[in-house]
Structure formats: structure tokens, C-alpha cells
Design brief:
The chain has 539 residues and is mainly β. Helix content is 3%, strand content 36%. The protein has three helices and 46 strands. A hairpin with a 2-residue loop joins strand 44 and strand 45. The protein is globular, with a radius of gyration of 22 Å.
Length: 539
């Protein structure tokens, strides 16, 4: 390790998206990576072992992938197959492009999930015998055979169907809402707490407040958005700290299903400024109209609100076209990708039309009216129950789409989709290869809060004033909501070049409020072009 003395200078930091806005956007490209995954990816997440875990519901009947070694699942409560020898979950290995079946026992239909601080995937709730289930999956290396664990006495207090999860600074996971569940609880926990905000935002016979959007704010409180309304909530004292203005436009949560992300947090302001971004959804009559066979346009509007401002207000703008059920992901350079979904209708069985085949790139710090770019379109409709995730190499992994009760492959407008794709954003274009950094080494991969670590990287076309270091917590994506994703722009010294290698001292976030403990993808971003990420464990 090359040692050198540096003067730490936070003033050298820049907001990441303003840097990346200097790089021209190209349409990107699509690749079919798996022709038949066997299981439709209703839920998706990326693990620190460089695998993607996907699962569907267990009561769809047969999938197209059998469990191995004659294994079967016997469940007298299952509504489709009480003796079931078919997989309903899969693990995809990024490096080898292989997948294998996993065994999930209880019904995961419309469940939620989050990573615990040790990297264990925790899946909560679902339907039928899975409504109170707490499942765990410990990611393992390529040569191991890890699988779902549903044993033990850890159970939810209430049924949680269409609930949302968020990991907290104390390493607990909060589970909020669900159908007819106007409350929240913790994993681990043992008690449920009333949350009247959820009943207040419930539209009779429609709901429009399921899968509420959750974002951990810089004061440790929880931003909760449901339908059109939002609060800042102290979950420790069970009290509303602040009520925000109503967001203009129609409802944004399931079944109207817009999407939400917290824009990147920055060391330049101590990770204190928190801005929420929400796009799409459906008008007030969208769901009832779709059920009557009239598929009205989805919402085209987006809104941003700085929830840490003394008097927050929504700043509204429009996407290039309407969109419902879009998945919103934070890219490693701090830009936002909106992918999948439809232009008409809502979430629900066969309730949407006009697939939104082209993703949108959103640059938060560009001028208003110049923030959106329409990207290369896929040829595969990704409608209800589609998902997407950011991979460590910067690609976007895309799967799912099943608008039917069961797997249906013919005689319908949108057949059940088992193909898995990867979308490569513009920054992976060969024309930017000289700008693409490569991480050579890290002084440590287990990083404590507020400590510094040395990062060495190489890059041909070096932009010393436009280098950034970001960490990203991967999302658990389902039903147009990417839970728990979080990107931070870290403080660093100006990189020093030594014999062709650039060396920087990077400072970890100060505490678990800024960044809850767990595994993060660390990227070097040069003039808006990110490296392949390395995993670090923050604690």
C-alpha cells in the first residue's frame, strides 16, 4: 500500500449528477441473458455474493422449472397445488449466467423484503399461509447451495400483504401497512403499532395506499408516502413529526402504482439534505375505469420535495409520456432510471395497456425541462409484476411480467414472461471506455462509520476534478417500488497519481442514520462514467 500525506478537503466535492450531466447520453442497449428462467420474477434483489434472487407466488400452480433431486413441497393450505414439485424462486449467478431453483415454502404473493445488516435477505408477509411469515436467505458462494429458511418462531403479528420494508439505524426492519393492516411492526419485533395515517389515505374499494413509499430521513425519522399524502414519522414514539403538502395529481401507490426514490445523499452537506422523487401513477378514476374496460392514461407528472426544508413544497414536472408500474432505480452515477410499466390503466389482473417499452433517464441537476431522456426500447412488454435491479457491473437486470392468475403463454395480449434481460445504460457504451475507472485495491472492505480508507484505481482519460466515490444499497424491487435503495456521494481527498495509479482517501458515512449498516456497492465515477462496483460492508 502506498502511503502519503494528504490534506482532507470536503470543499472539493461536487454534487454527482451535475458532473454526470456533462456526459452525452446515448440510447443504451438490450441483451437477452436467459431465454427461460422458469419462474416469473415478481420480486427481485441483488446480493453481495453477486447473485440475483427472484421469486413469484407459490399458488400460481406449476412454473416451468422443477425443484431438484425429486424434491417437492407439501402444503395443505396451498390454493393451487398441495403437492408441488415446481420451483417458485430462483437464484441467478451474474458471472456465469446460470440459475438454479430455490425452495420457498409459504406463499410469497405480494410480499416485501429488505437486507439485514449482515447481508441476509429477509422476506416478510405475503398471502394465505405466508401472510405472517418471516423468511431468510443467506447468500452464498457460487459453489454452495444456500436456500430459503422458514423455520423458527419469528412471525409477524399481523397479516402483511402489499406491505413495505425499510432497514433502520438500529438494524431492525420496519414493516409498514398491507391490505387491511393500518399499522406497522418490526423484525425482530413481537408487537404491532397503529398507524392512523394508513386508514386516512385508504380510498374505499380501491385502496391506492398499498406498498407505501418509505425513506429513512437524515434525522432518523421515516418519510411515509401513501396515495397522495406524506408524513415524517417517529416510529420510536409512534407520532407524526410533520405533515407534508399533498402531492398534486392522482394517487401514486398500489394499485395506481407510481414509483419513488430518494435522490442521492451527499457528504457536501453532511448527508442532511433529503429530497424525494416520485413519478407516475394513475388518475383517481384509473382503477375503477380499468375494471370497467376503459383504460385511461396513466399520470405523466413527477414531483420532487426536499423534506428537510423548513417549508417543503412539491416541484412538479412531466415525464416524456404517462407511466404506471414503472420501476425507479438509482444508477451508480447518481442519475435515475425509470423502466418497465405501461402507459394506460393500473396494476392488477389484465388492467393495463400500451406497454412502456422505452426506459427514461432522469438527471436531477439538469435544468427543468431538460432532465429526461428517452432511451432504447426493449421488445418485451414488462407489465404488472415486472421488476428490475442494478447490477454491480452497472447493467440493469430486468425480469417478470405476469398479468394473469397463473402462468398463461398463449391466447392473451401479454403472456406470462419468463425471459430475463439486461439493459446497458449509456455509460457502458464503448465510446466511454477510456473514461471508465477500474478499482485496483481497497485498504479494507469492512468499513466502520466515520473512518477513512484508501482506494486505488486506474483510468485512461482522467478527469481529476470530476471524480466521485459513491456507495449504493441494492433495492428489493416489487410492484413498482424499489425498497431500501440508497446512494451516497462520499467525501474524499483529491486523487493523487502515482505511476499511473490514482490514490484517494475516502471517508465513510458518519453513522447508521446516513447509511444503515449492511453491504453497499462502491463505485468510482469519472466524469459521470462509473467503474464496476466493489462490495463493502458498512458497520
Amino acid at each position: 500500500m502506498i502511503e502519503f500525506v494528504v490534506t482532507f478537503c470536503i470543499g472539493l466535492l461536487f454534487i454527482l449528477s451535475s458532473v454526470s450531466a456533462q456526459t452525452a447520453v446515448k440510447p443504451g442497449s438490450w441483451q437477452l441473458v436467459v431465454a427461460n428462467g422458469g419462474v416469473s420474477a415478481m420480486h427481485m434483489t441483488t446480493t453481495f455474493k453477486n447473485t440475483v434472487v427472484m421469486f413469484d407466488r407459490t399458488d400460481f400452480g406449476p412454473s416451468q422449472l422443477r425443484l431438484p433431486n425429486g424434491r417437492c413441497r407439501d402444503d395443505i393450505n396451498d390454493e393451487a397445488l398441495t403437492h408441488d414439485c415446481w420451483a417458485h424462486s430462483i437464484e441467478y449467478k451474474i458471472a456465469t449466467n446460470n440459475l438454479r431453483p430455490l425452495t420457498v415454502m409459504t406463499d410469497t404473493w405480494c410480499s416485501s423484503g429488505a437486507f439485514a445488516s449482515n447481508g441476509t435477505l429477509v422476506s416478510t408477509g405475503g398471502f394465505n399461509d405466508g401472510a405472517k411469515a418471516v423468511r431468510s436467505f443467506v447468500p452464498c458462494t457460487a459453489n454452495s447451495a444456500c436456500d430459503w429458511n422458514e423455520g423458527g418462531s419469528n412471525r409477524l403479528k399481523e397479516n402483511r400483504w402489499y406491505a413495505s420494508n425499510q432497514i433502520l439505524p438500529d438494524n431492525r426492519i420496519i414493516v409498514v401497512g398491507g391490505r387491511r393492516a393500518f399499522s406497522y411492526e418490526f423484525v425482530p419485533g413481537g408487537q404491532s403499532f397503529s398507524l392512523p395515517f394508513l386508514s386516512q389515505t385508504n380510498t374505499a374499494n380501491v385502496e391506492n395506499n398499498l406498498y407505501p413509499f418509505l425513506h429513512l430521513s437524515s434525522d432518523g425519522n421515516l418519510f411515509i408516502f401513501a396515495n397522495k399524502d406524506s408524513i415524517l414519522f417517529d416510529y420510536r414514539k409512534n407520532r407524526v413529526v410533520k405533515t407534508f403538502p399533498r402531492m398534486p395529481g392522482g394517487p401514486r401507490n398500489y394499485p395506481s402504482s407510481g414509483s419513488s426514490a430518494m435522490l442521492p445523499l451527499s457528504a457536501s452537506n453532511g448527508f442532511q439534505r433529503v429530497e424525494i422523487f416520485i413519478c407516475g401513477g394513475a388518475p383517481d378514476n384509473g382503477y375503477t375505469s380499468a375494471n370497467a374496460g376503459n383504460f385511461v392514461d396513466a399520470l405523466q407528472s413527477c414531483g420532487r420535495i426536499v423534506i428537510t426544508d423548513p417549508n417543503p413544497v412539491w416541484a412538479m414536472e412531466n415525464m416524456p409520456a404517462p407511466r404506471v408500474m414503472g420501476d425507479m432505480l438509482i444508477l451508480p452515477n447518481g442519475e435515475i432510471l425509470i423502466i418497465n410499466g405501461a402507459e394506460k390503466g393500473t396494476a392488477g389482473w389484465e388492467l393495463a395497456r400500451n406497454p412502456a417499452l422505452a426506459p427514461y433517464l432522469y438527471r436531477p441537476n439538469a435544468l427543468a425541462g431538460q432532465r429526461f431522456t428517452i432511451l432504447a426500447a426493449s421488445t418485451i412488454p414488462r407489465m404488472y409484476h415486472s421488476t428490475a435491479n442494478v447490477l454491480p457491473d452497472g447493467r440493469i437486470f430486468v425480469g417478470g411480467s405476469n398479468t394473469h392468475v397463473g402462468y398463461v403463454f398463449s391466447g392473451v395480449m401479454f403472456p406470462t414472461e419468463l425471459r430475463l434481460e439486461a439493459y446497458s445504460p449509456y455509460y457502458l457504451d464503448e465510446s466511454y471506455s477510456t473514461y471508465r475507472p477500474s478499482i485496483v485495491s481497497l485498504s479494507k472492505e469492512d468499513v466502520s462509520y466515520a473512518t477513512r480508507f484508501t482506494l486505488q484505481f486506474s483510468v485512461s482519460n482522467y478527469a481529476p476534478n470530476n471524480i466521485q466515490f459513491t456507495i449504493y444499497s441494492p433495492s428489493f424491487t416489487t410492484h413498482a417500488y424499489s425498497m431500501n435503495q440508497r446512494l451516497l456521494v462520499l467525501a474524499s481527498t483529491t486523487p493523487k497519481r502515482v505511476r499511473g495509479i490514482s490514490i484517494a482517501i475516502v471517508t465513510a458515512p458518519p453513522n447508521s442514520i446516513a447509511a444503515p449498516a449492511g453491504y453497499y456497492m462502491l463505485s468510482v465515477v469519472n466524469n459521470g462514467i462509473p467503474s464496476i462496483a466493489k462490495w463493502i460492508h458498512l458497520s
